[in-house]
């Protein structure tokens, strides 16, 4: 009985430089260029020297139909990997006895893997990202360097970028700075490192907290330093917190939140207190957003339906375009689908829910 075939598992070849790339090249030629190549390859030893020859590697040649090759052919590796490919279900002996030299061919499962994934699966891409971040050190891996990972794996750059975003959404990676860099200093990220970047499915499910449960200490960008604000100290600013809400939610959420923050000696931009008769509301709101270290937006059905709160929200989003999270959504009697319909990008932000927590 043949061993089980794992669509993602080429890990057993990682110790042999060039082996994963060669297998991918051969499968690509078989599946995408059947007019030039057959599913059959030959293996031969490479020797150097005449009087005292020394074996220096192993040559792999993919059968050609017209004397034309769509890939580099033959290819030479430092050792013979056919035994490992056979044990892991990737190849099988050529059943046709007319071919001398006992050629090998890829199994239907190996060909199906390449046809479905076009190369390494998501776990292999994710692992390459994790290792690159680890190698980059404390400064993190610049997102501009993801292209090098794509080139190394011979996959599309968009695919690597998509997997990086997925790891950020799962809180495995932290994304900080401008230009943005990726870090492994989240709790799931640290566990992933300890597990040697194994499949995420093998990590404890409790690590992958929904955005509403991620500790705020994991999002240092939520609070901007006072030095980044425009206003001089005083009654009109700068503020520690800007609260954006619909008037229908004032008594239930906004006012209690303001009272709690004020009791903690924080300067809070809160419309009933901050706005004065004769003030230009739009101008004051713009200044309040620009001169607050931290913004809270209380998302409710009333908030989503109001044009005026949408104006405030647009201002908050403009402050948030740096890719760092500088606002904290509070979900009040609202579902994730409601948030997605209002602003898809907001649904993945670290948040809090009034159904789960009090203002304290």
Report what the structure shows.
The chain is of the alpha/beta class and 360 residues long. It has three domains: 11-117, no CATH class; 122-208, Arc Repressor Mutant, subunit A (Orthogonal Bundle); 220-353, Toll/interleukin-1 receptor homology (TIR) domain (Rossmann fold), CATH 3.40.50.10140. Helices cover 35% and strands 18% of the residues. It is built from 13 helices and 13 strands. The protein has helices at 19-32, 82-87, 108-117, 122-136, 146-153, 157-169, 187-194, 250-263, 271-274, 281-290, 301-305, 307-319, 336-342, and strands spanning 37-48, 54-64, 75-77, 91-93, 104-106, 141-142, 174-176, 181-183, 239-244, 268-269, 292-299, 327-331, 352-353. It has a five-stranded parallel beta sheet with strand order 10-9-11-12-13, sandwiched between helices. A three-stranded antiparallel beta sheet has the order 1-2-3, with helices on one face. α8 (250-263) links the parallel β9 and β10. α4 crosses α5. The longest helix has 15 residues, at 122-136. It is elongated, with a radius of gyration of 29 Å. 30% of the residues are buried.
């Amino acid at each position: 009985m043949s061993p089980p075939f794992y669509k993602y598992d080429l890990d057993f070849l990682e110790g042999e430089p060039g082996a994963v790339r060669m297998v991918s090249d051969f499968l690509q030629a078989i599946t995408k260029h059947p007019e030039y190549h057959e599913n059959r390859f030959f293996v031969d030893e490479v020797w150097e020297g005449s009087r005292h020859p020394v074996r220096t590697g192993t040559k792999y040649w993919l059968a050609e139909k017209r004397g034309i090759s769509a890939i580099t052919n033959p290819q030479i590796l430092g050792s013979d990997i056919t035994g490992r490919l056979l044990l892991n279900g990737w190849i099988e002996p050529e059943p046709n006895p007319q071919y001398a030299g006992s050629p090998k061919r890829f199994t239907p499962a190996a060909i199906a893997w390449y046809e479905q994934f076009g190369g390494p699966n998501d776990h292999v891409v994710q692992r390459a990202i994790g290792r690159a971040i680890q190698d980059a050190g404390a400064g993190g891996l610049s997102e501009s360097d993801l292209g090098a990972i794509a080139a190394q794996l011979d996959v599309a750059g968009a695919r690597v970028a998509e997997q990086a975003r997925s790891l950020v959404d799962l809180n495995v990676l932290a994304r900080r700075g401008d230009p943005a860099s990726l870090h492994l200093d989240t709790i799931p990220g640290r566990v992933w490192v300890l597990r040697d970047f194994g499949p995420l499915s093998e990590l404890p499910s409790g690590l992958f907290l929904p955005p509403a449960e991620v500790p705020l200490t994991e999002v240092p960008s939520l609070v901007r330093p006072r030095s980044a604000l425009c206003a001089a100290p005083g009654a009109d600013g700068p503020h520690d917190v800007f609260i954006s809400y619909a008037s229908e939610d004032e008594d239930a959420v906004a006012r209690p939140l303001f009272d709690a923050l004020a009791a903690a000696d924080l300067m809070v931009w809160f419309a009933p207190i901050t706005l004065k008769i004769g003030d230009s509301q739009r101008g004051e709101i713009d200044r309040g957003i620009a001169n607050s270290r931290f913004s809270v937006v209380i998302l409710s059905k009333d908030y989503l339906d109001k044009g005026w709160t949408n104006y405030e929200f647009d201002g908050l989003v403009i402050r948030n375009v740096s890719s760092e999270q500088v606002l904290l959504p509070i979900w009040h009697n609202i579902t994730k689908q409601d948030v997605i319909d209002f602003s898809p990008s907001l649904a993945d932000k670290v948040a809090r829910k009034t159904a789960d927590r009090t203002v304290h």
